[in-house]
Amino acid sequence: MTVRGWVQTTRSSGKIAFVVLRDGTGYLQCVLSKAEVDEAVWEALRQLTQEASVAVTGTVRADERSPGGVELGVTGVTLLGASVDFPVTPKEHGTAYLLEHRHLWLRSRRQVAIMRVRHEVVQAIRDFFYERDFILVDTPILTGSIGETAGTLFETEYFDLGTAYLAQTGQLYNEAAAAALGKVYCFGPTFRAEKSKTRRHLTEFWMVEPEMAWYDSDDNMRLQEDFVSYIVARCLDRRAAELRELERDITPLERVTPPFHRISYDDAVAKLQTLGSDLRWGKDLGADDETLLANTFDRPVFVYNYPKAAKAFYMKEHPDDPRLVLANDCLAPEGFGEIIGGSQREDDHDRLLARIKQENLPLEAYGWYLDLRKYGSFVHSGFGLGVERTVAWICGIPHIREAIAFPRMLTRLYP
Ligand code: NSS
């Protein structure tokens, strides 16, 4: 048979030559014995360079030592596209260099494995919601209302209507859709002009956001733990080879089953202080706090009932303590930090109005959102899971820039 692909590696002893081919479905070891082929074929194969594209013809035979369990005994080779001095070699390159060559770096074995895990995560997300009768609603990317915080908006001119923003979230629109359809979700790219250069922040990232009518904060957390466990189990089941390629220790992932740990914000602050954090009540947890806290648990943990001042305007006030909101974050173990932010939504018209004013948000942009509290207001909750952070955690990679094909960051728009 003939296989077309790209040359990953070559190796030759003078009598026998090996080429590992990557064809997109996997890797194939091609073997050529000098004694058995024409001189021209031997030479052609020996001259192949990294990432040349080729068509290799030969006979498939079982070989336990080969990746995939088969190898190709080569009888013919056609060079389709030469590759001279491929810039990303097996030697170590600096991160800046690799990111500058992301379009080529993507072909390396690790990156291929990460992309396959990401693909599984995305499919698991869709399957989870489909199986539970959630309706997909695609929310707009160009929007007039600030979804999260005014501080991290990308703005663009919008004809005669003034400024449009790139969506930070689809949530507010989802809340409208939940009143029509019950349980909904949106899934797409979201944008934050984050000025921070951290391992966990991109300016464009993918977020999946379910929104459920009649769910309170506890229902919300139960759905989150089922959801995260489902995604992890799918990757363990169907992407074991990729996780092996990434040398991911899967023991901590195997523990990811419901119920997750739960700790109130109050208790989390007290615990963190005993662990040496200088976190003061009222502030959101920093990345170091998240790691410190999560390291005390053997599986993901929910931190719930945050101070109102640290969170977004739409969260429901705690019925017994007006300083708090019914919000939760989900922290992944092993130092990977927050993967989910969720909350029960403020369903009281006047309280929501007061919050919008308090936050100095432009009231005229929220008329439609307040309408949802005027016409059949309902208890509802939802959350957002960051795809890149989830993929980075499952793959065990320290920086989320490798969890998306072409990362967008403060200092990177190329390639
Ligand atoms: O800001 S969040 O905490 N919450 C929301 O956007 C809500 N509107 C979600 C909802 O209730 N429907 O972001 C949610 C998650 C967060 O936990 C991260 O996993 C991810 O989105 N996230 C990010 N990932 C990568 N880069 C950046 N900058 C980023 N910001 C949030």
What features would you describe in this structure?
The chain folds into 2 domains: 2-81, Nucleic acid-binding proteins (OB fold (Dihydrolipoamide Acetyltransferase, E2P)); 103-403, 2-Layer Sandwich (BirA Bifunctional Protein, domain 2), CATH 3.30.930.10. It has 13 helices and 17 strands. It has helices spanning 39-46, 95-100, 102-105, 109-131, 171-181, 217-238, 240-245, 251-254, 265-274, 287-294, 349-358, 367-374, 387-395; strands at 2-12, 16-22, 27-33, 53-62, 70-81, 135-136, 142-143, 155-157, 163-166, 183-191, 204-213, 261-264, 301-307, 317-318, 321-332, 337-344, 380-386. The strands form 3 sheets. Strands 6, 10, 11, 12, 13, 14, 15, 16 and 17 form a 9-stranded mixed beta sheet that branches. It binds 5'-O-[N-(L-asparaginyl)sulfamoyl]adenosine (NSS).
